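Aim 2 progress update. The chain analyzed this quarter is reproduced below.
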Amino acid sequence: MSGVWQTIKGYIWWAYPRGSLHYDVMVTLILLFIFATPSFINYHDAPVSYPLRSHHVLVKPDGEHGFIIAVDAREVSGRSPAEQQASLLRVIEPVVGQVKIDRWSPDQDERGNVVSYRIWVHR
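Predicted structure tokens:
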């Protein structure tokens, strides 16, 4: 019985020399653990996923100390200019941080539909 405990103690303390039968058994057990356990043991260590935001925002420097930002019109809500400006800030601040809007203007297609907004901002 003491021979079994010596063998187990050798496995625990990794006491067997490389190339021996016991060393090969230990390596095989480790490889089996690595490749076989994910199929039936859940470690609950999946990466946290955050929902992607569908913002279509293009940021360019304006050559001075601000930015010109293009925002897809589908991202902007509100009827009044104040509501639209607040909506523009909600869309661009996660991308560029806290900014102040200097001015903004809608870009229209050939039929007169607003397709995007161009916003001039500074920090």
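Residues 2-39 form one domain. The chain has a mean pLDDT of 86. These observations will guide the mutagenesis experiments scheduled for the next reporting period.
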